[in-house]
Amino acid sequence: MNTEAQAGDGREQPGAPSGLRASLLKYAGGLVLSIILTLVSFRISESGAVWPGGVPVLLAALAIAQMGVHLLLFLHISSGPENTNNIMSLAFGVFVVVLVIFGSMIIMHSLDTRMDNMPDMPAGAHAAPAMPAP
Amino acid sequence: MSAVTDDPVQTITRPVPVSQRGPAPTHVVTTYGMWLFLLSDIVMFAAFFAAFVVLRDHTAGGPDGRTLFHRHTVLVETACLLFSSFSCALFGLGVEYRHRLATYAAGAATLALGAAFMVLEVSEFTHMIAIGAGPGRSAFLSGFFALVGLHGIHVACGMLWLLVMLAQVATLGFLPKVARRLQCFALFWHAIDIVWVGVFTVVYLGAFT
Question: Is residue B84 part of a domain?
Answer without folding.
Answer: yes
